[in-house]
TrEMBL record:
Keywords annotated in UniProt: Cell membrane, Membrane, Transmembrane, Transmembrane helix
Gene Ontology terms: cellular component: plasma membrane
Family: Belongs to the 4-toluene sulfonate uptake permease (TSUP) (TC 2.A.102) family.
Top-level taxon of origin: Bacteria
Membrane topology: Multi-pass membrane protein
Transmembrane segments: 44-64, 76-95, 101-120, 132-159, 165-185, 197-216, 222-243
UniProt source species: Glutamicibacter uratoxydans
Protein name: Probable membrane transporter protein
Any Pfam family: TauE
Amino acid sequence: MDQAVQLSAVLGLAAAVFLGASTQRISGMGFALVSSPFIVMALGPYHGIMVVNLLGACSSLLIFLQVFRQVEYKKVALLLVPAVLMTFPGAWVASKMDGPWLSIGIAVMVILALGSSFLIRNLPAAQSNGLAIGAGAVSGFMSVTAGVSGPAIAGYAVASRWPQAKFAISVQLYFLVVSSSSLIAKGGIPDLSVAQWIACFGALVLGILLGNFLAPKIPPKFSRAFVVLVAFSGAISLLVNGIRHLS
């Protein structure tokens, strides 16, 4: 029975990673949005987010190596500086809130971030450096506490009218650096079993390969809608799970 439970947990972890990696390759973002609620439920809030940060960095690196010549480096740098700085206070908050309350906080942050990304569509085009700095700061804080850095950056991309094709390519460098910084700020590598490591990295590679195949075939609006739907579902499940464990 114990072996069946362990196998089920490993397969569930692999499925979350596979789905997140393929979504990341198709839409340019979504690894953490899609996978973090489910990985946190499997591994707990603190270590789960460490796994999300590590695998998110690996996913972005594998994609970045395919598209690095097309990255808009100056635009990414403006977002990265505040994002990296905010990972350190975020790590402190995450270490103090481990447990059900962090699960609830993560779920609420994901839901609010997704909701705000819809509201910001109604704002006029914003090209100011201030918006970029603010979006980077919020994104960096959420990366280390919730494992989710994408919604704030996606909101900035919409407001500043950053073309989707260029955004999807350039943001890989951003996610790579922010996820790595979040992991460093927490001071270590997550503790997983050999089977879990093999399942995670195998699912990561397979997910990206599937994404490479599907990316040219799926219109951007459909891939974005899929990210939001799965992320909302995962966040609500995590919220319910955290509330249940309060008692």
